[in-house]
Amino acid sequence: MYKLKLNYKSTFTPHFNVQDVLTQTACTLLLVDNNIHTTQASTDTIVFESDRDRTLAYLKLCKHAMYTPSIID
Fold first, then answer.
1. Which of 1, 30, 35, 65 sits most deeply, having the most CB atoms within 10 A of its CB?
2. Does the residue 18 lie in any domain?
3. Is residue 67 one of the residues assigned to a domain?
4. Predicted TM-score (pTM) of this structure
5. Number of H helices, E strands in the chain
């Protein structure tokens, strides 16, 4: 399993329900825009099928203002 964690910014500390929605939105956009299939392991963790997909998703999600992605091994 290849995982990516979304570290939400300290200035934006949303409720867990908001984090869950934002993470699910990121998963949906990765599928629609880049054909990257994911599952959501928790409110802030995304699981990928391959390291290639995780790396591409990391690059795509780096520009988001509310969180910073980090690779989990």
1. 30
2. no
3. yes
4. 0.89
5. 2, 4
